[in-house]
Model the fold of this input.
Amino acid sequence: TGLIQLKNIIHRYRKQGVNVYLCEANARVKTKLHKNHFNEILAGNHIYDSVADALQGIAAQSPSYNRVAEA
Done:
């Protein structure tokens, strides 16, 4: 299924040290993500309602992101 493929992609990126964030999923998709424990798979609360929320969350988690965004 698509969820299995998404899990595989996330695991592959995480092995490479890449953080994965999801945003703008509709209610049905969010429900499936939560039921399938994607918060744990994504290593934290990396599911956001909007791109703006994702950028704010990333900035709050990573001081280095703020320096890059301000440059």
